[in-house]
């Protein structure tokens, strides 16, 4: 058989390295499309002039666009037979990606644990996105529940990786040259500096977007993520499942309204897709400031933020009395952003 | 509160200058997207070779795409609490915008008039789009009806700006270097020169486009216009309102069929969004030649055109016996185009 | 009348040359949009680095994207009054198209045959796509059934061109510099070489895409194909007809799964749009290896492939007992692809 059946749980070995296929050169086209598919307004990713005034050579591709490109390549090898995308950890954005860069992805299998039902197991991979110079532009850990091909196949030794519950500010990489000393708050859209945000503060980002089928499919294809659950209504007559990353990008771009100066994503601490998202849902977002830290760069502060996407329901209502996510919660993301001090 | 509540009527003062946020660098991506979202075929905006043969350094971004970029930036400061977009005047296209240019917008408040109900008022702004060299690429006057935050706030002195009912041909800027002497009518798609159009002549542009939700939202986001009326079906359960500029671009690009040589927009005299537009509407367009003028450039003539977009109904039927726009009329736009003589 | 009524059957003369309007410069924007509208993953068209490792100066625009650009220009002159798109033959891809190239199209009328009903006739044209240097980048023959303006107009002499039932491998142009000697199969996504495919082998490409209205309209506009049957629901209340080329691109990109190394299209032998396609259809694809041939380039083999798109039904079921296409078959395409040996 020449088509790709995807890997099953017993196809992974701890220590395996997977070189994912289909490298991609990004251009101004990907940037324009990101701004077409999401309400993206962070000035650093919109204007070459603004980016240069912040010490960068040009406006980079949005961090999450780069993430989606790197992630999309892993789908045929990691999640084609996945039952669930369980989590993210230790996501580090190591350098910006610019138009003209070519990205590819490599994953190392760092953990395996068969489930007690014997039919599925959890696979942990650490994925690294590399540019054309072979330099890492990001890395992150992701774990997914994968079906076994053969329920009778023996269970592998359990290896659960030791992952940080969240990155520390000292783990973050500040892009070379980044300098917010002359940051133009008027052009950026809001006056709030790093010091204006308090731990525990919550922000309702107010705006909402009702999702259309064409939009999420176009976005998902742009990242060359071709998992059929997102595209084929005969495969999922109950509705095409929206790629979780689409919700992440919607929530992040909606968060401009209140976090316009949380310009760059430097770390991805954790993420849960709490409930599935479908076309017709109206996505809104709220944030909570989880932590604040200075960085080695005197012009740059770091904010650790919880970003929550919902499809209705009141803001700031994350979990019920039973500790479970409210049914309207789509995403609970924990990340570090770089903000002018 | 860190999110932007928008400005209310009493937040404007005549003489105020507003520097709008989020500058944007445009690329071939924006051009390709404009041609994806609209049936755009004017050769000058499609081919670098054709543009060079007309004396320009390369194919510019479509004039209306540049307009939407400049306009989109003003939304958070001007029309977030607008009840209605009332009109445009004195729109001047001062120089073409090219891939690589970075645009930003500045508005001056030039008029204020509280309405007799005491709850709303009209705000006039003159907006200028600037490129990375600080040169003006366009300017236009727009007036909107804006809610008051507090109905008891005192009315400002009424200042109604003295606006030209329309620009004269002498007010138009012909782009430096533009030369239609060797214009290739076959490649442009139609044989009609400036002299072939008569004042009073009407043209039914024949073609129609039935609008989808995904299309107008993608277009509107591309211009970073994130007003929630266009995106959030929970905010407007009766239907997402389509950005008026989407209708302008649809009508202008549909007008290629009959006005293929009306290459460049040089002036925007007036514009009214006569009725709201929703997904499912089929937009068609017709034009009327309002005036003709020579320009200082012997190869370039100017046509003053009325461009009307409809969603059904017969062409050329603009107003009823009561003088009001017919219910099928979406747009009544008055502009100057540059045409080979 | 200034709008284009399109040509009718009696407007064509054998030997006529038609210079089609609206040249187009392509950029990274068109490439990104192709990857947004189709599940395109062939590595040569995704990565400049991969393309350079194959001896090309950069990643070209997808062959079918270039085809659609060339084809789109012919619509106003060839198929505006067409009743049916009858076939393709002798399609040669002569050189890759790169971002920055400007394409235009020229057609020669090579055949005419009035139908016995006297109301329509068949027109054969050979269309050539040219770049800014005047070099041919592709050529193909297409024939369409076109309405007569006047049923009483006399029939022209019948001229039916002598067309090859399919190109031979020796007719194919291998792009200058193309070298698959160091081809990276891991990055390309599949291990199968030219020699791994056997004549008669069939491949079910498994994946499917349910089409949305916004997607096919955006794609069709991108190629500046503005035939109203694709856009205007008031013109076709029974449903907007999807541009046949949209189905070709969907099928070709879905065929990545099993034919990831069928990198370049070198020849188009024949093609039939067996049944119309509408939004809501779920398109799947299967292929059959029709022939194999070496080429003058020792690193490059050629596969002649049948590519079939369906909207349901079992794979490999092309025609019924009556010899007619099954009602679920959308496309039957016969092409040559270049594959690493």
From TrEMBL, chains A, B, C:
- Family matches, as Pfam families: MC_hydratase
Instruction: Specify the signal sequence span.
Output: none
Which InterPro entries does the entry link to?
Answer: MC_hydratase, MCH/BMMD, Thiol_ester_hydratase_Rv0216
Q: Where do the coiled-coil regions begin and end?
A: none
Matching entries from PANTHER family are given as: BETA-METHYLMALYL-COA DEHYDRATASE, MONOAMINE OXIDASE-RELATED
Return the protein name.
Answer: MaoC family dehydratase
User: Origin organism of this chain?
Assistant: Thalassococcus arenae
């Amino acid at each position: 058989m020449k088509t790709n059946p995807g890997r099953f749980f017993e196809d992974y070995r701890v220590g395996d390295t997977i070189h994912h296929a289909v490298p991609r050169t990004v251009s101004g086209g990907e940037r324009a499309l990101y701004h077409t598919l999401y309400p993206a307004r962070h000035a650093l990713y919109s204007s070459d002039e603004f980016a240069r005034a912040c010490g960068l050579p040009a406006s980079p591709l949005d961090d999450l666009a780069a993430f989606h490109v790197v992630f999309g390549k892993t789908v045929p090898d990691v999640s084609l037979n996945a039952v669930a995308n369980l989590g993210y950890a230790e996501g580090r954005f190591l350098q910006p990606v610019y138009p003209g860069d070519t990205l590819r992805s490599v994953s190392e299998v760092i953990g395996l644990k068969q489930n007690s039902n014997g039919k599925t197991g959890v696979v942990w991979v650490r994925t690294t996105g590399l540019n054309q110079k072979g330099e890492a532009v990001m890395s992150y850990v992701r774990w997914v529940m994968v079906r076994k091909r053969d329920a009778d196949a023996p269970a592998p030794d359990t290896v659960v990786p030791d992952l940080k519950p969240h990155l520390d500010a000292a783990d973050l990489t500040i892009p070379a040259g980044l300098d917010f000393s002359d940051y133009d708050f008027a052009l950026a859209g809001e006056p709030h500096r790093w010091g204006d945000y308090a731990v525990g503060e919550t922000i309702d980002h107010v705006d909402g977007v009702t999702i259309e089928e064409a939009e999420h499919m176009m976005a998902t294809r742009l990242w060359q993520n071709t998992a059929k659950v997102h595209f084929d209504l005969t495969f999922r007559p109950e509705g095409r499942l929206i790629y979780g990353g689409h919700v992440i990008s919607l929530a992040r771009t909606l968060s401009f309204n209140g976090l316009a100066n949380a310009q760059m994503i430097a770390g991805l601490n954790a993420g849960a897709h709490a409930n599935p998202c479908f076309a017709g849902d109206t996505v809104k977002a709220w944030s909570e400031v989880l932590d604040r830290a200075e960085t080695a760069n005197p012009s740059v502060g770091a904010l650790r933020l919880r970003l929550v996407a919902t499809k209705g329901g009141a803001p700031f209502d994350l979990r019920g009395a039973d500790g479970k996510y409210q049914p309207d919660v789509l995403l609970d993301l924990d990340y570090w952003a770089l903000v002018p001090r």
